[in-house]
Amino acid sequence: MKIEHLVWLRNDLRSLDNPALYFASLEAKKAKQGIAVVITPTPIQWEKHNESDAKTGLRAGLIKNLANTLATLGIPLHILEAETFDQLPETITRFCLDHNIKHLWFNRDLPVHEQQRDQAVCEQLKQHQVHSHVQSSDIIVPQDVLSQQGTPFKVFTPFFNRWVVMLAQQDNTPLPIPEPQAEALPKPNLNFAWEKPFRDDLWPADQDTAKQKLWQFCHHKERHYQKSRDYPIEPATSTLSPYLALGALGPRQCLEAIFYTCTQEEKRWQESIWLKELAWRDFYRQLMAHFPFLSMNRPFKPETNALIWRESEEEFQAWCEGKTGFPIVDAAMRQLNQTGWMHNRLRMITASFFTKLMFADWRRGEAYFMSKLIDGEFAANNGGWQWSASTGCDAAPYFRVFNPTRQSQTYDQNGDFIRRFVPELAKLDAKSIHDPKPEQRKLCHYPNPIVDYKAARLAAIAAFDALKEH
After folding, report:
1. Which run of H or E residues covers position 224?
2. Catalytic residue among 11, 83, 309, 403
3. pLDDT tens digits for 23-45?
4. Catalytic annotation on 83?
5. N or C: which end of the chain has fewer CB within 10 A?
């Protein structure tokens, strides 16, 4: 069987609901040809983008899992390793010429560096008469979601209202797995020098497990999601973000589960709060595409460039290590360091603490999160940090400064989450654990607070107020 179609997979490591893989297989079948798949690991580039060891480890596992699936379909998989994106045009072109490939298929990526990489590959292939076929990006509404004036939305709520209308108008049926194109191939024995350990007990590197987790969440937890999603001790969130970040789950798979669950419960799918969370992910990714400067360490609000952030290496290290003296902040940071994941309410608490009370540069916190998160996605991480720092699009008002103790009392009322990750405080009662007295801290070998909440809050508000004077 002649293979002239090559499918290039990146952060879309799945066989189901994969536009590039599915449509390439259809076109090849029409021409009585076959397809092959290529994956191009770029470990040095991942390091430059601050991607975590945990995410790298999960990626390696998902590639191996996908390789086994492709082998059962008779689809050859090729691994072309490069260090950085700028090596890929030559690497992919050489492979296409060596194997008489006439068509390259891939799903669109939105961040600036990824778009530049894809454009460079397409331009070089064009010189050798290899045609590029770019499919829709891995978001729920792949078309641009624009206002009536044809401009991108800068506020989430009107974006969401338009997004829901467009979602209802598109075909949301998940694309099937390609049909087998030949007899099964031997399952490859892949080993990667760049592979890293990760919490595979929490996130098995398996597409079927990801799909199973999706349906279990929608069947059993989605109906309670609005009420229980803010309580980190509760297993109430989907924990699917690592699979979404690497494309082990496709957007239409998530929609299918939401639609089915809402039908069973006789409620409108538009009212699903989890769907709205997925819309935030689309919102931040579309912003990244429309405003490329967000990929260049710049704030969405240019006036906030004038802020003079405090630089305290001692405070930064205390925050990273979960030793700030604020129990809920420390529990959250230790959860991140130990598992590669953090509950969303805690991401807001820790980022607000960092940017408003420590008054540290949000870019440094953003980079640290990316270096630890197994679900690190540049657009969502950047959007969340700029939201917390009040420098971003539709961000929290600058005068809204989370009180970590009050947040702790509200969302970890009995201190159970704190006890799990800050065991030195485990014996304190449910009242004291949120803000131990000095003598309790001493007995528990727990540090004093690194900042004074009231003074730090007033200083942060004053710094933003001063921007108005210029």
Report:
1. none
2. 309
3. 999 999 999 999 999 999 999 99
4. no
5. C
CATH number of the domain enclosing 444? 1.10.579.10
φ/ψ (deg, to 5) at 106: -155, 160
Would you say residue 337 has pLDDT above 70?
yes
Q: Do 258 and 164 reside in the same domain of the chain?
A: yes
Are 124 and 31 contained in the same domain? yes
Per residue in 112-144, is it b (16+ CB within 10 Å) or e — as a string? bbbbebbebbbebbeeeebebbbbebbbbbbee
- How much is the pLDDT for 470? 61
The per-residue pLDDT for 1 is 85
362 is catalytic: yes
The pLDDT value recorded for residue 469 is 72
Same domain for 162 and 231, yes or no, is: yes
**Whole domain around residue 441: which residue ranges?**
302-467
Q: What value does the mean pLDDT of the chain take?
A: 96
Q: Which residue of the set 362, 366, 377, 381 is catalytic? A: 362
Asked whether residue 196 is assigned to any structural domain, the reply reads: no
- Whether 187 is covered by a domain: the verdict is no
Pick from 305, 369, 382, 375: nearest CA to 337: 369
Catalytic residue among 8, 163, 203, 280: 280
| Domain closes at, from 244, 265, 290 | 290
Percent of the chain with pLDDT over 70: 100
Residue 396's pLDDT is 79
In angstroms, rounded to a whole number, what is the distance separating the alpha carbons of residues 470 and 467?
6
For residues 255 and 352, state if they share a domain.
Answer: no
Say if residue 319 is in the same domain as residue 212: no
Co-location of 239 and 324 in the same domain? no
pLDDT at 55: 98
CATH number of the CATH domain containing 21: 3.40.50.620
Work out the angle at residue 54's Cα, subtended by the Cα atoms of residues 202 and 66, and round it to the nearest 5 degrees: 75
Domains identified in the chain, total number:
3
Is the same domain home to 70 and 167? Answer: no
pLDDT at 394: 83
Where residue 335 falls among pLDDT bands split at 50, 70, 90?
A: very high
| Catalytic hit among 46, 105, 203, 385 | 385
Listed residue (266, 283, 334, 31) closest to 161, CA to CA = 283
Looking at the fold, whether 117 and 149 belong to one and the same domain comes out as no
User: In the predicted model, what is the mean pLDDT of residues 234-251?
Assistant: 96
Neighbouring-strand partners of residue 8: 38
Q: Residue 385 catalytic?
A: yes
Of 81, 234, 277, 424, the active-site residue reads: 277
309 is a catalytic site residue: yes
